[in-house]
C-alpha cells in the first residue's frame, strides 16, 4: 500500500497480499486501519475482529456475514476468513463503515482509500 507517497507493506513482515473472493477484496485490515488512525483487536475465543476509529466501531466474526456497526447489526456479502494463518476481512465493507471512500482501478488492480 502507499501512504503519504511512501510504499508500505499491507501486512508488515508477513508478505500477505490482498485476495479477491466473490468479487470482493479481502485484506489483513490492521495496518490499513492503523494508518488511518484507528485500532484493531482480535478475540481468539470468539474469533472476533474489533475495529475502532474515532466514534466508529465495527465487530466482525470469522465465517459469519453478520456484523455489528456502532451497535447495529448489519450484513456483509463476504464473511471474514482465516487464510494462511492471516485474518482477512472485506476491505470495502470495513472502510465504508468507517466513513472513508474506496475506489477500485480495474486496469492497475489498485485500491484507493480517501476521506
Chart the SSEs and their pairings.
Blueprint: E1 2-3, E2 6-7, E3 19-21, E4 24-27, H1 30-35, E5 39-43, E6 48-53, E7 56-61, E8 66-69, E9 72-75, E10 81-83, E11 86-90, H2 91-97, E12 101-105, E13 110-114
Antiparallel strand pairs: 1-2, 3-4, 4-11, 5-6, 6-7, 7-8, 8-9, 10-11, 12-13
What does this structure look like?
- This protein has a single domain (26-114), classed as Copper Amine Oxidase, Chain A, domain 1.
- It is globular, with a radius of gyration of 13 Å.
- It is 11% helix and 47% strand.
- It is built from two helices and 13 strands.
- It has 115 residues and is mainly beta.
Assembly category: single chain
Order of helices and strands: EEEEHEEEEEEEHEE
Tell me the Rg in angstroms.
Answer: 13 Å
What is the straight-line distance between the termini? Answer: 16 Å
Q: Strand percentage, roughly?
A: over 45%
Shape designation:
globular
Summarize, please.
By secondary structure, the protein is mainly beta.
Task: Please tag this protein with its features.
Copper Amine Oxidase, Chain A, domain 1; 115 residues; four-stranded antiparallel β-sheet; five-stranded antiparallel β-sheet; mainly beta
